[in-house]
Amino acid sequence: MHHIDDEQRRARLGRRHLLAPSVRAASAVAVADAVVALHATDAATVYLSACARLVDPSVEAVERALYGDVSLVRLLSMRNTLFTMSTEVAPAVDASNARAVAADERRRLLKHLREDGKGLDERWLADTERQTVAALASLGRATGSELSAAVPALRTKITVFPGTKQETVQGVASRVIRVLAADGRIRRDRPRGSWTSSQFRWTASEPWPATDPAEALAAVAGRWLRSYGPATEADLAWWTGWGIRRTRAALAAAGAEEVLLDGGASGWVAPGDLDADPSPEPWAALLPGLDPSAMGWADRGFHLPTAHRPALFDRAGNIGPTVWWNGEIVGGWAQRPDGEPVWRLLSDVGREAAQLIEAEAARLSAWVGEARITPRFRTPLERELTA
């Protein structure tokens, strides 16, 4: 069996994830396509991940793709998580992941409505959804609060988890909006405030065209392998949220080829992707929490030393801001209240690495400007650095 070692995996990561300076991209769409999709749970992550990989990083370049020509869109998809991807990738992700997520979101909301005991049912939800979409068509775009003002039904409150320790009273607005967004009938528009804000406005949208689910599985698996391969079945199953049976079916449909990894595990690559990528020039990167290069695999041993994990992850398993050197995570970084980026190295990387890391920090500071970034998922090292 063809063997691909960890050194080659790190070389592929530097090139295919556009992290070495010589392979950086000219557009945010090219960045998203290179890693299949950008994590978007934290609004700032999309900008930080994209700009780390752009030749000319700027907030405006990412905003233009998100809200100008809308060539990047957000979908609630893999692992029931919000991702940003290109409109070329979105139909396959929608059919292979987002449709199932949307159905689960609707089932959960209807269950809460029934348990509340006010007679709220599918008909009430359908009518509320119609009113909400009509209000958006009239307003053009609106925040959740503005939609609630325009649609009285959105101001309804329900009791969730009645009779349990988790019992609480909640408004339905955010849940109805979430279901409409999952169905593709509305989408996030420019937020109130800066690019780091998560208080999005909403605007009307159209669902993605129907795509054959089997073809979509193969398409997503093939794209992922070209970006993240070689990788294991477990890696793909974790990243997508698919079960092992669906993952194996997707790998077979994509024509994946089996290879041997360091340590003896079996990995998979895209068809014909056996030749070695040349190692890029020495490179350093400061990547945000939940960046795709840190979140692309269940087993990250080839680029993340086990000893670094306690400092870089929160209790829920979310990775924070990371410092990279030639395909390995060697530390973490944060932004102090005065705007200064600061980092701590957890590996001994030498003078050349230290100089390139400092240059990347200056590059980051230049395009971030006056913005202040606090990750949604805070890790021990990030908290220490900002204390």
Distance between the termini: 50 Å
Number of domains: 2
- Any idea what the shape is? globular
Radius of gyration: 22 Å
Q: Spell out the helices and strands N to C.
A: EHHEHHEEHHHEEHEEHHHEEEHHEEEHH
Give the strand order, joined by hyphens, for the main sheet: 11-12-13-14
How many extended strands?
14
For the report, how would you describe the main beta sheet?
A: 4 strands, antiparallel
- Helicity level: 40-55%
Which band does the percent of strand residues land in? 15-25%
Judged by helices, strands and strand pairing, the structural class is: alpha+beta
- Average pLDDT level: 96
List low-pLDDT spans. Answer: none
Number of helices: 15
Pfam family, one: AlkZ-like
Organism: Streptomyces argenteolus
Protein name: Winged helix DNA-binding domain-containing protein
GO molecular function, one term: DNA binding
